[in-house]
Each structure stands twice: as structure tokens, then as C-alpha cells.
Description:
Blueprint lengths: L3 E3 L2 E5 L4 E3 L5 E3 L4 E8 L7 E7 L6 E4 L6 E4 L8 E6 L12 E3 L7 E2 L12 E4 L2 E2 L4 E8 L7 E8 L3 E8 L4 E3 L8 E7 L11 E3 L7 E2 L11 E4 L2 E2 L4 E8 L7 E8 L23 E2 L5 E2 L13 H25 L1
Parallel strand pairs: 8-15, 17-24
Antiparallel strand pairs: 1-2, 2-5, 3-4, 5-6, 7-9, 9-12, 10-14, 11-13, 14-15, 16-18, 18-21, 19-23, 20-22, 23-24, 25-26
Amino acid sequence: MTPVVAHGVVFVATDRLYAFGPSVQATATTVAGSFVARATAPGAAGPVFFRLTNVAGAPAKVTAAAASTPQSAPITTPYPEPLRATVTDAAGNPVLGVVVTFTAPAAEPTGVFPETPPRTDASGDAIVSGIAGSVVGSYVDDATTPGVAAPASFALTNTNAAPGSVSILSGSGQSTPVSTTFPAPVVVEVRDMTGKFAPGVTVTLTMPSTGPSATTTSPLVTDSSGRISVTLLANDRPGPFDATFSVPGAGAPAVASLTILPIQTTNPGADGGVPSGADGGMGPAALDDGTLEGGGIGCSASPSTPASAAGTVLIAFGLVALGGVERRRRRR
């Protein structure tokens, strides 16, 4: 800066923070800070120094630091970065010592912040640390200071806490025939580290790749109650198997024990033959005189009788039965 001479005294501002008028009336520039002005005069023993300070003007703007927004944290845990609001005057100088109030929503989702509002430091920064509330969701925290209309806004999100456990609520221990759907779905519940339901968590289902197993088309992401309901279709391999449900970081997996049953065939009877009787079935019925009435042409064969022999006996026995009925009719 060019020295100013007034009344034989030379005034020099050492760091361009002041402008001197012809009457040596010093006027602060728009840059806040302290500096030293030096005055000298011809023949004087030495210069005279003036220590001067340009202070910031009134607060004109409050802004959110880029590192503070947006950010997120699991519910009931601290946000990774403190909330930092910077207050400046109209020339952009940081304003020291003004109160900044951080206001979060009264209802969830929200966060927990100090009740006593901070004051700005020499850099114009007001800093608070916050803790995510107990409900998952997003919200805005506003920082305000007197005299400034527009607040600084911080976009914050409360996320699910880390999964803590996975368990089977129902559906284990059931069975179904091959290639059919199990009667009831397997219901699985996931809770977070705080013991609360964990919605939106992806569950991994593992079942055998060979032997008895099943398939599903059910979604494997927990609902608002932290649950999934899984319908399983058995394959065509009879036998027991396990369906394992796991979530990374949730500790031990949950296991549902299931069984696929073989197809049940119709039992032809204890004697291995064709059913017979006097009730209109396939077999003949005995009359009161010991002859057989033709309710059919069935007969029975022992389990050891070959199929072809049984068929021969069946025909012969049918003919005998019919002959017996005919003889009875003739006697009448």
C-alpha cells in the first residue's frame, strides 16, 4: 500500500488491511483481522506503531459445512460427523461469538442434540454432536442465528441398527409329500442389536443342493415387523432336510427342520387279492345252502399265488359261483 503523508507524518499499513484518507482518518476494509500501522516523520528518532483490528460485521449468513450434510447413523448411535454451521458477515468474514441454535423435529424420526446452543469460534463455526433417534427415517435439522433469516439445513438419516439375531417363529418340524407345498410357511424374525425389529434386512436362505430339498419364490427381505414368511415347495426326494436362514453379523443362523414324505400307495388288502363280499362288491356271497350267489366274479388268492395263477383261479371260481346260483334256482 502506498504510504500516506499527512502533516509531515508518513502512515503505512503493513498488510493492506486499512486505507488511509488525506486527513489520516483510517477506515477499515472488508477484511477482518488485526494489523499494525506505522507512522514516521522526517527527523524523528523512529516510527510510531498503531495496533489496529478490523472486526467482522453483523451476521448475514449461516451455512452448513459440506462434511456435515448429508449423513446417516444407525438408530440410537452418534452421527459420524459433528454438525458444523458457519456464520459470516456480508463480506464473508467469520463472525465470532454469536449463538447458533440447532433445531431437530419434535417427532420421530429425529435426533438428540445438546440443549445449550453453542457460540461461534474465531472461524465463525458453531459445532454440535448429535445422536440418531430411535426411529428409522430421514429428517432435517436447521441451524439458526439471530439476524439471519435463512437457516443452515442438515439432511440426516436414521438407519437400521446392525442385525443382532435371527430366529424361527413358526413352520419348523412340518412335513409334506414329495412335490407338494409345505402346509405352513416358515416365519423368520430378525432383530437388531438393540432388540428392536429390523425391517428391510435381506435374509439368506440355504437348502441342500442334492437329495431332499425345496424351492421358494417368497421375498427374503424383512417387513416392517422384521419378519419374512417363506412358502416352500418340496422336491421329489423323500427324506428330512434343514432350511437355514442367516443374516451377516446377526450371530448364529436359524434352522427349520423339514421332512418330505414318499407317496402313499393304496393297500390292496391283507391277503393281496381283490376285495370281495356280500355287499355288492367284486366277490361272490355265500347263500344259506352253502352255494355262492354271484355278486361278481371275484375271488381271493394267497400272497404266494402268482398273478397269472390268481387270474386263472378268478375265472374258474367265477364260473363255479355262477353254476351254483343256477343249481339253486332249478331246485326252487
